Amino acid sequence: MELKIKIPSKESRKLEQIYEHYALEKQLALRLLNSKKEERKELYTQLYDELYQTITHHPRWTRKSNAETTAWIVERRLELLQFFLKDDITYLEIGPGDCSLAIAVSQKVAKVYAVDVATEVAKHIDFPQNVEFIVSDGCSIPVPPNSVDLAYSHQLMEHLHPEDALEQLQNIYNALTPNGQYICITPNRLSGPHDISKYFEELATGFHLKEYTVSELYQLFHNVGFNKIFWIKNQKNLIVKIPLQWWSLPLIRLAEMALQILPFSWRNKIANTPLLFRGMTIVGIK
């Protein structure tokens, strides 16, 4: 089988295991993409649970068993969140995975909601009293309206069916208090694909049902009503907020258009430069 990118040395799985993961995830992703909206209310949870139950070498399981790696990931994500967390706020995390970050944040805020479509990973977690784990159908955000001061997701938006992304974003917006903020971290399509299909294809075909660009994600945030929208770059104790406005958006769109016409290998290499489009953090303020 031909590889699009080199498998990194830190990857502990054999090529056969990676391909097994890719083949099943692609098959399940096609079921999601071809499903009707009513079917997806149960299908997200069903298909993600099937993946985690079948692929016992999935990184979510191996990372969970590696306390050192988990602690490093939580520390990196707190480098950004430290600029937003306060001890009296309500924090919402959508797609919390193994909930390590949500539990760490619970020590710094008053209340935590952890909302996910998958139930398998959370079955054996002993949650602190101020953390509430809630199962979603993939679109709904089952928390009281106007109750969340800070919402956060990491690698979530790209997992949603394109028809569901706007609806879920609207539900997050509705959950926020006035001036509440939503931090959305998602991979940029121009430096992708970023799911398991990255080893075999030029476009995401796994559970990254749609990867976005900065300008596309801005449009979604604008459509649901966010008052201010920023593109964030941060490094440890430094944070830079780039307002997405009339003067910055044309420049960003021009750069995106230029990258899209390049051959895949060139685009992937250039876009993966940390200061460009390797990933993106968008913050919307209600």
Automatic annotation (TrEMBL):
CDD domains: AdoMet_MTases. It comes from the Bacteria. GO terms for molecular function: methyltransferase activity. InterPro entries: SAM-dependent_MTases_sf. The keyword RNA-binding does not apply. Keywords: Methyltransferase, Transferase. Pfam families: Methyltransf_23 (PF13489). The keyword Disulfide bond does not apply. GO terms for biological process: methylation. SUPFAM superfamilies: S-adenosyl-L-methionine-dependent methyltransferases. This is Class I SAM-dependent methyltransferase. The lineage of its organism: Bacteria, Bacillati, Cyanobacteriota, Cyanophyceae, Oscillatoriophycideae.
